[in-house]
Amino acid sequence: MRFRPKLFEVFRNYSKELFYKDLMAGIIVGIVALPLAIAFGIASGVSPEQGLYTAIIAGFIISLLGGSKVQIGGPTGAFIIIVYGIVQEFGITGLAIATIIAGIMLVSMGLLKLGVVIKFIPYPIVVGFTSGIALTIFATQIKDLFGMSIASVPADFISKWAVYANHLHTTNFPALAIGILTIIIIAVTPKFSKKIPGSLIAIILMTLVAFVLREYAGLTSIETIGDRFSINATLPKAETPVITFEIIRTLMPAAFTIAILGAIESLLSATVADGVIGDKHHSNTELIAQGVANIITPIFGGIPATGAIARTMTNINNGGRTPVAGIVHAIVLLLILLFLGNLTKHIPMACLAGVLVIVAYNMSEWRTFKSLLKGQKSDVAVLIATFLLTVIFDLTIAIEIGLVLAVVLFLRRISESTQISIFKHDVEEAEYIEGNTEAEKLILPKGVEVYEIEGPFFFGVANKFEETMKMLGDKPKVRIIRMRKVPFIDSTGMNNLNNLIRMSTKDKTKILLSGVNEQVHNALEKGGIGEKIGKENICNNITEALNRAEEMIAKNKKC
């Protein structure tokens, strides 16, 4: 496999004009990423600077090694719930180990060229768990948005709302006002400014308001980041966690969820970006870059990272066209951390909650969710199941069961589309079309029956074929299995075919195969079918098979 980072490709024709555009875009994206990195870090159950470490280190690595020209990497809202759950159960060390394992999985996916396969995950699953995550994120922010006095918020979604209802009387109205104003500012800013992000404006204004109210009006009940966290505005130290087989086995499900979610989100973001800039990303290279980022970042205190659609689109809209913009964005965040990091302690928690409420709304894709509810029943079942499992249980269960359900329903749909037709003495009902010739009715010789399989002959329909054979009470002299519309056959289909041959041998019925394509023919040869029925009994078309059947019947009469 060719590992082809886009950064090295763009340098062939790089120019000062491109660098200026990338520089401006990188600065703007860095400013946009600041409040999001802090908010995602806190919401994930870690410190605000850990969110910044992730945006800096992972953002740099993903732009340096990635397969997309404009992808911006960092912490995202999709990881909040899974990260929070891991931290609560296994601590920061457990999160670091799970992230490293997920990074190794992502690198393996890229090396095994699974970048294209990831794109085939059903859309209802993606929308289902994305909408579920959005609702869950919204639920986690109610305490800070309302400024409620709650010692401990339960992890369970339903229990969480019960606790909120019981503590509604503890609402801090100044904090609630700050949260609501934050939401309003972010919502209306795009109408006045396309360059400066509403989240940044809201944080600056609401931080000033909170500072004035706390210092001069005595409203110290408005909680800020500094009240809950001790900000460490320095470069992180490398600490490699001790990894044992027992820990790997325990954290494997969580790591798998991080890897799958990271792969889906990063490749989805890169695909959306391709459509805007008219480029084509290298999916396997992108997976390797995401994997390397998730292996290295937790060593420096970071959390899982992936491609961020919102920041990537901000990069594109502000002129970014090469990975240099992503590298600049990481450097800007590093400078902010080192020189302005201590100022973040004044940001009110209600303001960050307002930012995340907007993030949750944008993630919800409620219009898409609503439109999918009008689709096929199988897609609706997958959508609702994934959504409810994400909200009520967790993302790991939702993705696993959602994928299994989607596969089962897909196989059912395929098996229903595969038809098995039986043609006996009533020849007038059997019309055969060979190539591009007009339909022609072929007379079946006496003692010959034709069974036609239309569709893939795999485990989903093999049993249907066997049941059909068992229902037949007659014993023809020659049984022709017509397979012109069978694109492939698996081991279960092969086993059923072997059973039919064995059963037919006992009944002294000869088996002929007709219209077998090259792929199926090779599979039959490997499975020993050709030796059992005779290679001369695998015919190219139905006409040849009927002629062969007449020869066999005539030969038996002479005997």
What does this structure look like?
The chain has 559 residues and is α/β, with parallel strands linked by helices. It folds into two domains: 6-12 and 21-409, no CATH class; 418-558, 2-Layer Sandwich (Transcription Regulator spoIIAA), CATH 3.30.750.24. The chain is built from 24 helices and nine strands. Strands 3-6-7-8-9 form a five-stranded mixed beta sheet, sandwiched between helices. It has a two-stranded antiparallel sheet with strand order 1-2. A two-stranded antiparallel ribbon has the order 4-5. Strand 7 (478-485), helix 21 (491-506) and strand 8 (510-514) form a beta-alpha-beta unit. Helix 2 (16-43) crosses helix 15, helix 2 (16-43) packs across helix 16 (349-364) and helix 18 packs antiparallel against helix 19. It is elongated, with a radius of gyration of 31 Å. The chain starts with 5 loop residues before the first helix and ends with a helix. The model is unreliable at 426-438 (pLDDT under 50).
